[in-house]
Amino acid sequence: MHGIFERLGSFGVTTLEELKGFSSRLTTAQRDKRHLASSIPQAPGVYIFRGPKNEPLYVGTSRNLRTRVRNYFTAAETRKRMHEMIAVTHHIDAIVCATILEAQVRELRMINEHKPHYNKRSRFQKMPTWLKTFESVDIREASTRLTKRMNDFSDAELFEKAAVVRNEIHELVRNNSRAHHIHALASLPEIILAKPISTPGLWEFTCIRYGRLAGTALSVPGIDVARTLDSLTMTAEVVVDDGSILPASSHEEVEKLLTYIDDEGTRIVSLKGQWALPILASMTPTFAEVPSLDRYL
């Protein structure tokens, strides 16, 4: 029995889950290429499956790169598209990131740049859908008109038509709010954020400039937090506002950053410029009232 386990170890089988996966359900490519995951680090970051010409086939992200990549070579991976990808994979690269947010943003940028064949999502971030109008539209007036139209249908018991208008109102309000939030962050020269990590007393710091992730850092025990923040601001990417709607990033990246900012644990350290949203804007974010980091240090 011990001899069997020793032999399985050469195939990268070191856990019960991997043993369960080492079965007839595995493709030949999964068995033969399992070793490609052996050198992947146990850390948050981005992984890239590459083909014989070093071309990116698939880009993904994980809090634990090794565990995630190894899963592709177990019976738990049943997607035919992934089996096809593994068959043509030549090697796997890993990029370790300081934070999971950095990994997620790197993933978005790499997919947008290389458009890997086996990534279905986020491949065309620079091609958002825009609504073109031929006259100025007052959003509140439009919402009022649609609401009246919905009520008229409802009073006439035309409930299916009323539901269609209701959905139109929802999309109008949601997209108006989305536009406000994206524009507000993309117009901000700089904002520094802090978020506690799993190790008590330690923090991860994020620098955002004009809606683009410019840098991240982790606090180090025994090192003054102010020094870490100074280092972050000095080494963060220089981002220039070119006057466009999204001067430095994509709408997907800005929305990823907004989700991070809106997280309950995120704190504002400092910001440059004016960050403002209309008081009566729909879905006003809670992060507008997030307390300063000083209260937690």
UniProtKB/TrEMBL annotation:
Domain GIY-YIG: 42-120
GO CC, any one term: excinuclease repair complex
SUPFAM superfamilies the record matches: C-terminal UvrC-binding domain of UvrB, GIY-YIG endonuclease
PROSITE patterns membership: GIY_YIG
InterPro entries (UniProt xref): GIY-YIG_endonuc, GIY-YIG_endonuc_sf, GIY-YIG_UvrC_Cho, UVR_dom_sf, UvrABC_protein_C
GO-annotated biological processes: nucleotide-excision repair
Protein name (Swiss-Prot/TrEMBL): Unannotated protein
Native source species: freshwater metagenome
Lineage: unclassified sequences, metagenomes, ecological metagenomes
